[in-house]
């Protein structure tokens, strides 16, 4: 791989990071379950993923965010 293509790949990676919202409020959180039979059961949610920045949060963290 040439130095130039390596540099442009690096630039592409940085551009991807820059696309993420800087001040994400994590307003839209998608619940995630460990096992397929658990899907849809609210108290078996293992984590939540922000739909905009894709950060992962534990249910306790989501609860703390919503309470504050
Ligand atoms: Zn977010």
For the sheet with most strands, the description reads: 3 strands, antiparallel
Helical coverage, percent range: 25-40%
How many helices does DSSP assign?
Answer: 2
Dominant shape: elongated
Order of helix and strand elements from N to C terminus: HEEEH
| Oligomer class | single chain
Low-pLDDT ranges: none
The overall pLDDT average reads: 85
Bound molecules: zinc ion
Strand order of the largest sheet: 1-2-3
> Structural class of the secondary structure composition?
alpha+beta
Distance between the terminal alpha carbons, to the nearest Å? 50 Å
Beta-strand residue percentage: 5-15%
Quick one: how many beta strands?
3
What gyration radius follows from the Cα positions, in whole Å?
Answer: 17 Å
Structural description of this entry:
The chain is an alpha+beta fold. It has a domain at 24-68. It is 38% helix and 15% strand. It contains two helices and three strands, in the order αβββα. The chain has helices at residues 3-19, 59-67; strands at residues 29-32, 47-50, 56-57. Strands 1-2-3 form a three-stranded antiparallel beta sheet. The chain is elongated, with a radius of gyration of 17 Å. The chain binds zinc ion (ZN). Zinc ion binds next to loops.
